[in-house]
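Q: Got a minute? One more chain.
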Amino acid sequence: MPSSTIDPQLPLIDLHRHIDGSVRLTTILELGKKHGVKLPGATEEELRPHVQVIDRQPGVMAFIAKMLWMTAVLGDPAACQRIARENVEDAKREGIDYIELRFSPWFMSEPHRLDLDRVVEAVVAGVNEGVRETGVRVKLIGILSRTYGVEIAHRELEALLTQRDHIVALDLAGDEANFPPKLFVEHFKRARDAGWRVTVHAGESAGPESVWDALRLLGAERIGHGVRAMEDPELVDYLLEKRIGIEANLTSNVQTSTVSDLAVHPLREMLSRGLLASINTDDPGVSAIDLPYEFEVAALAAGLSRQQIWQAQTNALKTAFLSEDERTEISGRKRGS
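A: Always. Here it is, folded:
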């Protein structure tokens, strides 16, 4: 990884990666065979166009549809445990020092009607296995998949709370345009009462009002994507004042047609304004990228200077859901390596 784009003195961090959007093609094929799932291809190359984005998608939900083959093969909790472990192994291979992995229990359980509690338990176990094997620092974020509505979100939350000590934060993801934050106020109050941090997908498929609601109604400390936040100068000032983190996802935002191309992505403006924006992968299994690619290729195509890329790397450490002691320890490990 060239030092011109990734500062070797700083930890390499990914704050926004979906476990259920980061499944290896080989794993899909093996689990599909094991669980009797008829896949649209028998080899990696045959499967690839059905799972990975080849052309830009017309929106976020079309992008998410690519993930359905990843969850289709999760035939038992052991499969969920495997993909969680492999996410950590892949982070190690990418040179990542610290990663926050997120997952939706309902999204993972739905194809085979798995028990939600067992899915959450399996993901925690898989991540712990990966950490023991690789030494990568990992924290887990639970997702409420807004697409399924308020009642399913309650069930997801109950399942996540069975492993409350192994989860650091709650997120809201899915169909932002049709399921606004106001529907999930009670869920996030319970999460905050449980001691969890809060990050929310907002400003991706809906405008600045979605970001405002995530902040004011749900207590978001970070915003996933936040692309359209820049449309509202008052909101930008608020994000600056409150030091709200922005989890930027460059390639993903192009592939979902949230932005037309990397050259017009607002990340450069965010960093110029001093917002605490970081560079992340979102769903690397769907996007066919990894974190070094986002730093070395996508960030440059988005017009970021070397200094801005390093600033984004620093912002990830600043806005990570870590204690100050953990932040210091991760930084020290990197400098001492």
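A: The mean pLDDT is 96.
Q: Perfect, thanks.
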